[in-house]
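All the exercises in this workshop are built on plain-text protein records. Sequence and backbone structure share a record, each on its own labelled line. The question running through the whole workshop is how a given chain folds. The record below serves as our worked example for the rest of this section.
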Amino acid sequence: MEQFSTDLGIGPHEVIAITGTGGKTTLMFSLARKLKEGRKVLATTTTKIYLPEEGDYDRLYTDMGKLMREESTAIEGLVAAGGPLNSEGKLTSVSEDTLAGLLPFFDVILIEADGSRMKKLKAWRDGEPVVPRFTSKTIGIIPISSLGMVIDEEHVHNIGLFGEFSLGEKSVTMEVLKRLVLSQDGLFRNSSGERILVISQADDESLHEAGLKLSALVEAGDTGHMISKHFILSLEAIGHGDYSHYTCRRLWQADERG
């Protein structure tokens, strides 16, 4: 995860929202564990996430009022926080105003800002994703392993809205994935700050090659230069230090855009 976190270019006082499908929670906590070295890091959600395992955090809060009342000197390492657990055992959403109040206490805030009900792909309803206005980086994830997948309710969240991206296709093609990334109602809908694409689940050479092809298609279609970086990777592999199927493509630097 070290190379990935370096390539992301995490600066001081970053607020990073993670959207899409194919590894949001894994990415958030893997990155949080790496970034906590010498930093105060908050991992939270504006939607819902399953309760993290104990090894994923140093302190856990399900009462945001209690966290808000903590002295800033008492907060250290990696804090996982959300609203009270619901009937599914998930941490519930934290409001934008609450997060704004926590900004002075943390060096990095990581937010899972989208829900997909564990499905490979999704379409977005009004109000989704839930990205705070003060977000400095939005990371959009799309799994390359979905290529060739049947487009149906089993595999796609909000299937009734997916026609905008599938345009009649019965299975997932490169063009469908490209539309998901670049459409104004797609992966970076409601995004804020620098936009970073993560093409995930590139678990072998063929999937990595497919990820590179998708990246090239997206770059060619991104005429407004919306996305600054493309990553093609396997979250599982880089979590174990294996970068054999990893690519970072820097299309422009954030400071070049003002």
User: Anything to note?
Assistant: The mean pLDDT is 94. The CA atoms of residues 128 and 199 lie 20 Å apart. The longest strand covers residues 14-20. The chain has eight helices and 13 strands.
